[in-house]
Amino acid sequence: MSLEKFISEAISPWMKNEGSESDIVLSSRIRLARNLKNYSFPIIATTEEANLVVKQVKEHFEEQKYDKYGPFELLEMDDMKPIEKKVLVEKHLISPQLADESKKGAVLLSSDESLSIMVNEEDHLRIQCLFSGFQLNEGLVLASGIDDWFESKLHYAFDEKKGYLTSCPTNVGTGLRASVMMHLPALVITKQLNKILPAINQLGLVVRGIYGEGSEALGNLFQISNQITLGKSEEDIVEDLRGVVLQLIHQERAAREMLLQSSKLLLEDRVYRSYGILAYARTLESKEAAQRLSDVRLGIDMKILKGVSASILNELMILTQPGFLQQYAGEILSADQRDERRAALIRERLNLEIEKFN
């Protein structure tokens, strides 16, 4: 394996497996924050201490296998170009913080990219498990197993009363962040989502954009995750999130049905208009491309548009991001050049779909 393998394809192998409720829930993620005992946390660690953490991870886990996953490969941030790190961010394999700010950061990746362990981000370890569709319970089982594997070789910073100790107080306790990526175009179109968001926040959950905290909700994609990590078990946290997600799935489906019943012509026009722009545009900004792709995906899921794969949203949302466009081009591109390349890649991808279905 090499870095090239992880940045050459927009779709990670795990994304090709279709999970439940995949027309609305694109992916599920379980992330555990952990720190090593007797080491300064990354936010105040010296370079020497950070290097020692990477060394321990490398010695115990690189090229090792866990269950059916592996061998794992360790990639160090210092060895990567800015564009290469940006591609890993766009694929959700590392965080923007690890790419931009970490001291001697690294990431341990499984070959199918469903397991990602960030080293020296905000915490010494961020264990991340990714699944397609709505698979939070499966993610928790896997993350817990990986966590036990790491703890069998490393000594965690743990307090009997507080639980796992983390850099940010909001992660103390279980250190668990469970999240799902949801496509909610009908709730946005019908203006119902703004009424729902305050209720979600009151339940101890938070709604963010596609790349987490501080990011924009491009293409009607929303990341919903827990805020509370202390005072609840991992199972209870996941179950609380599951309940809210099931409600959102129900409400999104009801909103789609309402649009079909009351505004079918307008909905069809919206879908086909967006498809036409994607199929023929010569320049596309990222925000417009995301919105048009969302419309097309909605049309596919509602059986309005045929002959196009439902995975197109997942693939093109990554493929048309700035980092991936420049990695694909092999050079740094201006904003105008990226817009031109984005439009060309989308046209090329749609043409492939037409050839595949004809």
TrEMBL record:
It is an enzyme of class 2 (transferase). Residues 24-255 form the Phosphagen kinase C-terminal domain. One of its GO terms (cellular component) is extracellular space. SUPFAM superfamilies: Glutamine synthetase/guanido kinase (SSF55931). Keywords: Allosteric enzyme, ATP-binding, Kinase, Nucleotide-binding, Transferase. ATP binds at residues 27-31, 92, 126, 177-181, 208-213. One of its GO terms (biological process) is phosphocreatine biosynthetic process. Appears to be allosterically activated by the binding of pArg-containing polypeptides to the pArg-binding pocket localized in the C-terminal domain of McsB. A motif (RDXXRA motif of the pArg binding pocket involved in allosteric regulation) lies at residues 338-343. Its EC number is 2.7.14.1. Catalyzes the specific phosphorylation of arginine residues in a large number of proteins. Is part of the bacterial stress response system. Protein arginine phosphorylation has a physiologically important role and is involved in the regulation of many critical cellular processes, such as protein homeostasis, motility, competence, and stringent and stress responses, by regulating gene expression and protein activity. This is Protein-arginine kinase. It comes from Anaerobacillus arseniciselenatis.
